[in-house]
Amino acid sequence: MWTILSAFFFTLASLLVPPLAEARMVDEASEVVLENGLKVIMIENHKVPVVTFQVWYRSGSRRDPWGRSGLAHLFEHLMFKGTRKTSGEEFTRTIQRLGGEYNAFTSSDFAAYFETLSSDRFHIALELEADRMENLVLQEEEFRTERQVVVEERRLRTADNPKASLFEQLSATAFQTQPYHWPIVGWMADLKRITLEDARMHYGRYYCPANAFIVVVGDFDRKKLTSRIQKTFGSIHKGPSSPLEKYEDPPQRGERTVHLLRDAELPFMALGYHVPRIGSPDSFPLEVLAAILSLGKSSRFHENLVRGGLTVSADAENALVSVDPGLFVITAEALPGKSLSEVRDALEKELENLRREKAGTREIEKAVNGLESSFVFSQDSFFMQALLVGRFEIASTWKDVDNYIPGLRKVTPEEVRRVVRRYLVPENRTVAILVPTKEKKTTYTEERGE
Fold it and tell me: What is this structure's pTM?
């Protein structure tokens, strides 16, 4: 749900491992920029004969025009409808016939497309991606079909999912001027407003070399790959320059609360605190704070709330890698018979303990070890390496990947206490509460597609 590093790392069972040797992607990677502005980031690795090829566009939901939320995500669907050279069905059959995998994903800050193929076949992915970057065909009938698909997707994944609906309300309440205010999938009414012409304008403005970059990880020869990419992508018109504007909400001056009444089994709570993004001196202390609170079964939340018999779960996540400042989110689901007021008091007690007394050095080390382990071992996958590189490139620069572990290791107990006192305070908090109700509410008919 949240665009944060922890959503992409594998959590390890043990957090008591010693610090791992630093893995420096910068030393293993290379970068070239074609004349049309297309950046290519390559990490050559011959451990298995596989290549992951990813094309990233700076065109996430933050680019959606007002009243057209969901356009960027809808366009992700349209990218699979075919070009003048290759139909959508042929695209799919080609990758499957070669034994590969393909997919795409859209976030608030980007849209990305990938193929993973054996190293002797991955050049096909270059040709297919270059083709649809330049020659996508958009037709009214297929546009209407895909728009309805997204309407159904919103209904199933958000409108009919109480927790997803709650997170949507949390963002809409916490963010007032930032584009994170509206959901990636879009509001229902906005989806119905999007036209084929909107999609064509989005394609012409954002799906071009000036607004994209490529990440390739795996078994290839850099010189040969550079030459092949130049051949397939180099002739594509640069396209309009679309600088990524950055937004930041004004400081929050008081607690905001939103209640959602839904047919649900257990009450659920999400607390969102505005925090800075990567680049701030407070970003890594916030990462460590999240680990102290909820990473592993020896974390404070698990020991005192879950094992303490108050909640089913309790978690903390920090928005580190995002274009704009995000939220530090704490979530908790009450056990049957327990009230959210009890849960909220217990969460506040944990934060107050950290405000009053510094976390111990050993606790900091354990949290850092856990984050390091997840970070390093996740890179065993070519796909995850490429994903990390892409996420950092969107938020700052891909070279900042190598600053993650050193940044964690520098965090001190005093810094953790400082960020709790500065950011995790009631006046900077948005509270979203899921209130279970026995009967389903049907007031909002737009969510039912009526």
Answer: 0.91
